[in-house]
Amino acid sequence: MTAFFVAGTPVQQGSKTAYVVGKRAVLTDSNKAQLKPWRSEVARVAEATWWSLNRLEGPVQVSAVFVMPRGTTVKRELPSVAPDIDKLVRALLDGVTDAGNVWRDDAQVVRLVVDEVYGVAPGVHVDITPTSRVAMVAALTENAATAATKGIAS
Fold first, then answer.
1. Intra-chain end-to-end CA distance of the chain, in Å
2. Rounded to 5°, angle at Cα 112 from 107 and 117
């Protein structure tokens, strides 16, 4: 298990915009100006955290808590508005892949545990752990048992 924190307001991976230049198709992110620095910071922190560790070669689990700034007029308990949590995860995983020394590709991620909360120190807390099918089944069994005890299982 290796954990790190990337400070700053998390930025979602935007939609792609395609256009043709000459005979070549070009794809760009719609929010490139905000996304590029965020992914670079994710890559920098991940690379620095992994500098003395072996690159992960098998399946991994990623746990992440995105801490979003709360606007002064916001009354809701959780940030159930844009940015979308799945697009935040895409930017995070692509940033870790950009680091180059953590894993070969984010396709190695077989389990995600992700939360989005408000807090005074925006950023993302990340925990990356090698995993196996046995560990995943054990975690799922534990979650099902907890849900059943609380009476929320179907």
1. 32
2. 135
0.85 surpassed by pTM: no
The pair of three-digit structure tokens given for residue 137, joined into one six-digit string: 């089944």
Q: Return mean pLDDT, the chain.
A: 88
Check pLDDT > 50 for residue 154: no
Q: Is 139 left (phi over 0), alpha (psi -120 to 50) or beta?
A: alpha
Query: Can you tell me the distance from the alpha carbon of 49 to that of 3, in angstroms, rounded to the nearest whole number?
Result: 8
At residue 22, what is the residue type? G
Q: How is the chain split among helix, strand and coil, in percent rounded to 5?
A: 35, 30, 35
Query: What per-residue confidence (pLDDT) applies to 148?
Result: 67
Q: Which two tokens stand for residue 13?
A: 């991976």
Q: Exposure string (b/e) for 78-93, b if CB count within 10 Å is 16 or more? A: ebeeebebebbbbbbb
Distance CA 1, CA 10 (A): 22
Type of residue found at 75: K
